[in-house]
Amino acid sequence: MPTIEKPILVVITGPTGSGKTDLSIQLAQRLGCDIISADSRQLFHDIPIGTAAPSPQQLATVTHHFVGTLSLDEYYSAARYEEDVMALLPSMWEKSPYAVMCGGSMMYVDAVTRGIDDLPTVSDSVRRHVMDLYESEGIEGIRATLRNLDPDYLAIADPANHRRLIHAIEISLEAGQPYSSLRTGTVKERPFKTVKMMIDYPRETLFDRINRRVDAMIEAGFIEEARHVYPLRHLNSLNTVGYKEMFAAFDGTMTLDTAIERMKKNTRVYAKKQLTWLKRDPSVIRLNPSTSLTDALAALRQQ
After folding, report:
1. What is the mean pLDDT of residues 204-224?
2. pTM of the complete model
3. Mind listing the pLDDT tens digit for each residue in 218-231?
């Protein structure tokens, strides 16, 4: 690679099931650097199958950061992620002028590459209060509360994304003012250059990969993994695609076959949301699936 004046953070992002992990490992090996995971669920240990975390063999190949580092009951946020990654990067630049970030949690990627607004840390008492509200009144209760606290944010938010709505309520309560009033959207200056890439599969091919990956997860023991954490199903870390469907099957509200098919469907829906997010970012370099590593290296040579 050519000599570079400024460290480069290479972000391998894209929808779930697009092959981010394999490409990031290949690229990190070529660049002689570590990998920073940008997956909000791979942070937690005890759920490697359902989160498609790198395997022990892959973890042994290249040093990974932010994989399996948290207990399921620990609280984490994009703001903490930004702080932790920014603290880690200087030591990584000593090893290589490159670092690879891999993941599809777009808020985490944006937190590091663009920065996020300074928001108050949510206290345990506020978090419990809002979660109790959600568990007792559901998404309708959350919407009604946010309508009173911050109608401006509710007007632009995805009304079905309970996590975002809950987060807005938590911040509004903690700050004592509407969440929307604290969102400036200011892009922070970074001491490194960012190059974002994604493997650009045709949608039908991507969906087929997702379906096959779910089947592979089942064969790898995902049902047993979900059953192991079933007693902790109330935790936010498990309120995600795959575990929710399995828990419903364990509860008897749907058959296991239905849960697996629903898991495939909901994963495809999640992938669509990721693709929609990525469409808004013209800086993302789209890589040909059959030549992704070659294309990625070529793109870096042009930086």
Report:
1. 97
2. 0.86
3. 999 999 999 999 99
Angstrom distance (rounded) from CA 40 to CA 276? 18
Tokens, residue 171: 């911040």
User: CB atoms < 10 A from the CB of 33, how many?
Assistant: 23
User: Which tens digits make up the pLDDT trace of 20-47?
Assistant: 999 999 999 999 999 999 999 999 999 9
Return the structure tokens found at 23: 């490409």
At 71-109, the pLDDT tens digits run 999 989 888 999 999 999 999 999 999 999 999 999 999
CA 225 – CA 50 distance, rounded (Å) = 8
Q: Cα separations (Å) of 183 from 118, 147, 186, 187, 245?
A: 9, 17, 8, 11, 34
SS3 string of the chain? CCCCCCCEEEEEECCCCCCHHHHHHHHHHHHCCCEEECCCCCCECCCCCCCCCCCHHHHHHCCEECCCCECCCCCCCHHHHHHHHHHHHHHHHHHCCEEEEECCCHHHHHHHHCCCCCCCCCCHHHHHHHHHHHHHHHHHHHHHHHHHHCHHHHHHCCCCCHHHHHHHHHHHHHHCCCHHHHCCCCCCCCCCEEEEEEECCCHHHHHHHHHHHHHHHHHHCHHHHHHHHHHHCCCHHHCCCCHHHHHHHHHCCCCHHHHHHHHHHHHHHHHHHHHHHHHCCCCCEEECHHHHHHHHHHHHHCC
